Amino acid sequence: MVYFYTKINIMRRLSISFTEPNDEWLNEQVDSKEYSSKSDIVNDLVRQARKQQREIDWIRMKLEKAEKSGFTTESRLEIMHQAKKQSNE
Asked: What global pTM score does this model have?
């Protein structure tokens, strides 16, 4: 006997409000066929934000580990400030 497992994503319906410029931008994305709906856009943006947060958490963990190991005398905030400064150059 063979069993197949299928993950079913259940979508929840939420009501959210957008400012006019944001709503216009969302409509433009749908009109340009970049996305099929505003929901697709919002879900994609949330996925991107979650991925970015995981990366930030990983970097923060690495910084804290390096700081505790004596690898650096600079604080986590000093290192993050330097990293942000370099990324803006």
From this structure: 0.62
Helix, strand, coil abundance in the chain, percent, nearest 5: 65, 0, 35
Task: State residue 70 phi and psi, 5-degree precision.
Answer: 85, 10
- Are 63 and 80 contacting, i.e. CB atoms less than 8 angstroms apart? yes
**Domain definitions of the chain by residue range:** 34-87
Tens digit of pLDDT for each residue in 5-21? Answer: 666 778 788 899 999 99
Tokens of residue 82, six digits? 């330097």
Residue with tokens 């949330």: 46
> Is the alpha carbon torsion for 83, 84, 87, 89 positive or negative?
negative
- Over residues 23-63, the pLDDT tens digits come to 999 999 999 999 999 999 999 999 999 999 999 999 888 88
